[in-house]
Design goal:
This protein has 196 residues and is α/β, with parallel strands linked by helices. The protein has helices at residues 20-32, 45-48, 55-59, 64-75, 92-101, 132-144, 172-194; strands at residues 6-12, 38-43, 78-82, 118-124, 148-156. 41% of the residues lie in helices and 17% in strands.
Amino acid sequence: MADNTLKVAIISGSLRKGSYNTALARFVAKSMSNGHPVEIDEISLNDLDLPMFSEDLEADGLPASVIELKDRMISADAILFASPEYNGSISGALKNAIDWASRPREGEASLACFKGKTAGLLAASPGAIGGLRGIRHVRQILTQLHMVVVPAEFALGVAHQAFDDNGDMTDERAATMAKGVGLAVIEMTNALKNTK
């Protein structure tokens, strides 16, 4: 892997097979690799099957799935989050993953999964506004965890009609806006790396 390759993790807050949020995250991630040296790591919360966060579980030692989540987030330069909107807010699965990832292991720097990393925000919904209210809460949480959340964000409405059989977005204007989030993540991450 070249030294200038960015490692970008994508995390969808939806556990549903055929998730529109997962499709959107994959589409944006694919576009990020066009013309840029980017390595994508898709972290599936469905595959990890994280237990609900509990300090009692934590006291017994972090579950293996949590350790895997943390290791993959720590190794990423940037993270692209796609969150469905549940009752106007973040999905429980994504909030649970964030809560687990925020807990430090012995000898680990505080907020090692988040601090100083770039984040991009996406949402998709069959509804008209595409989960826009939910990603406001995601932004608030990630900012609290010291991530550099890019100002650009994209919420895809009527998402059940947005993708073709290849996973590409059929509306050119919406596709350009979605890709803009990925581009903003790349530009911000490179800028942060150049200041170190």
